[in-house]
Amino acid sequence: MRVLLTGGAGFIGQHVLTRLLDRGHEVRVLDSLRPDVHRDGKGWPPPDGVELQIGDVRDAAACNKALAGMEAVVHLAAKVGLGVDIADMPDYASSNDAGTGELLAGMARHGVARLTIASSMVVYGEGVGLCAEHGAVRPGPRLEASLAASDFEPPCPVCGKALGTALVGESVALDPRNAYATSKMAQEFYASNWARVAGGSVAAMRYHNVYGPGMPRDTPYAGVAAIFTSALRAGKAPRVFEDGGQRRDFVHVRDIASATVAACEKVTAGVHAFNVGSGTPRTVGEMAVALAKALDGPEPVVTGQYRLGDVRHITADSEKLRRELGWAPSVEFPDGMTELAHQPVA
Ligand code: UD1
């Protein structure tokens, strides 16, 4: 297939590009090489046979040029991270939502009907917890006073008692808790509006915590695995927030790429959301220990610090992806962590 890959010069984009090429697709990349991501200003040389168009999805002319002759789009171009500041809001709304709107309008003009977009597990907010009395419940936002008192677990919203763990399925109501999450949810809705009107298909890939070679580091938007690796390489202990018991599903970027390309190839009608996780939740504390061991570095320090926008636990049920697209992750957590620890420093 002739595939337009937006954001193909980014961390996930480069792995998706490799996978698309391995699968025999013809790929054109549209990427703005935004300076907050490509900070060294060196640009990005595309692999042989790949056309790079430097441009912004918010620019209708750039979309028109990039979409000409394409059969499918994988849309990864976005501002990532958590939204560390309210001042980031306009950029999330513009880069992620206005950008997606412009791309969708272009796809309608060019009759490109197949779309795979990067979404995120953050659209579920605090996810789902299990109350002994009230069953599956949706915890509310954690109060700053509770966090300040080191009371990190969100309680049952009905009785206030402690909750057990549950995996989040795609059908639970979305509940974004920060600007990034809101922008990802809006992208999904714009895409589904487009699909209905223009007769297109959408696969929204709700990525869990992605890690692996090429991960961005040393910025406020870097994921925790990159932050810990950088600290350890500088001989410092990883600083684990809260009590380290917050659960995530760390999924390797090559598995993210294979899931994304499977969706691009197989989803040809309707609107579908897929959680993309390894299926094995880990705690942030556990991950810090694994990296410290792999790098023979100092033991992690549990700081009790917190970030108000953080959710406590978020773990996906990725069965739908396995069942409907025949996908399975291939990188085990210990192997992936060892690889991350020993990858060359960019
Ligand atoms: C991450 C991604 C988000 C993605 C989501 C999918 C980043 C920055 N965020 O959000 O884009 O949509 O996964 O699930 O990549 N922590 C520490 N020490 C630190 C930094 C963080 O202990 O120095 C803790 C945080 O408190 C949090 C956990 O690590 O509990 C994960 O943080 P982070 O890597 O920022 O990711 P998410 O918020 O899960």
Give the structure's gist in a few sentences.
The chain has 10 helices and 16 strands. It has helices spanning 11-22, 60-67, 89-110, 144-148, 179-198, 224-233, 253-266, 284-294, 319-325, 333-342; strands at 2-6, 26-31, 51-54, 72-75, 114-120, 129-131, 135-137, 164-165, 201-207, 209-211, 239-240, 247-248, 250-252, 271-276, 282-283, 301-302.
Description:
With 346 residues, this protein is an alpha/beta fold. It is built from ten helices and 16 strands. The protein has helices at residues 11-22, 60-67, 89-110, 144-148, 179-198, 224-233, 253-266, 284-294, 319-325, 333-342; strands at 2-6, 26-31, 51-54, 72-75, 114-120, 129-131, 135-137, 164-165, 201-207, 209-211, 239-240, 247-248, 250-252, 271-276, 282-283, 301-302. The strands form five sheets. The protein has a seven-stranded parallel β-sheet with strand order 3-2-1-4-5-9-14, with helices on both faces. A three-stranded antiparallel β-sheet has the order 7-6-8, with no helix packed on it. The chain has a two-stranded parallel ribbon with strand order 10-13. A hairpin with a 3-residue loop joins strand 6 and strand 7. Helix 1 (11-22) crosses helix 7 (253-266) and helix 6 (224-233) runs parallel beside helix 8. The longest helix has 22 residues, at 89-110. The protein is globular and about 55 Å long. The mean pLDDT is 94. The structure holds uridine-diphosphate-N-acetylglucosamine. The site of uridine-diphosphate-N-acetylglucosamine has 24 residues, from helix 6 and strand 11. Uridine-diphosphate-N-acetylglucosamine binds at residues 80-82, 120-122, 207-209, 221-224, 227, 239-242, 246, 248, 284, 307, 310, 314.
